[in-house]
Amino acid sequence: MTQLEGTGAARLLQLFNGDKTQPTTITNATIQSVAPISVRVDGDSVDTPEQGIIVAEHLTEHSRTISITGGTVTGQVQDTYSGGGELTSLNIVDGELTFKCDLKVGDRVIVAVVNDGQLIYVLDKAVS
Question: Which of 26, 34, 48, 57 is such that its CA lies 20 to 30 A from the CA of 91?
Answer without folding.
Answer: 57
